[in-house]
Amino acid sequence: MVETRTEKIWLSDAGIMYFQAKPVNKHLIEDAIENINCGKDVARGKAYPAIIDIRKSKFVSAEARNLYISEENSTIKICALLVGSPVSRILGNFFIGLNKTSFPTKIFTKETLAIEWLERHG
Questions:
Q1: pLDDT in tens, 86-117
Q2: In a 3-state reduction of DSSP, which class is residue 44?
Q3: Any bridge partners for residue 9, and if so which?
Q4: Which residues of 88-110 are buried (b: 16+ CB within 10 A; e: fewer)?
């Protein structure tokens, strides 16, 4: 597991990358750059199905969101977003609704359903 200011990042035994957001007040472009680079280190040059748990997210800048959905984020080949609170649901909708991701993305409220979807499509 790698830990940054805003996330915990690891690769599960099942071959799923996890990006778990921490409850920080602001998630900026600098954080996105660090998280993507740490994800690349964990992935060691491969792309994996990913679960991005944004249930504790409070604010992610537009610049950070744009970087996350770009081709620069080469460790993700398909993405399940875990949401819970109204704030995280809004962030998830911004992530996939207002921007075109470079990988298939779907929002979930339950991790088990997210894993099933990733296994079927990833």
A1: 776 777 766 666 666 778 888 899 999 999 99
A2: coil
A3: 2, 19
A4: bbebbeebbeeeebbbbbebbee
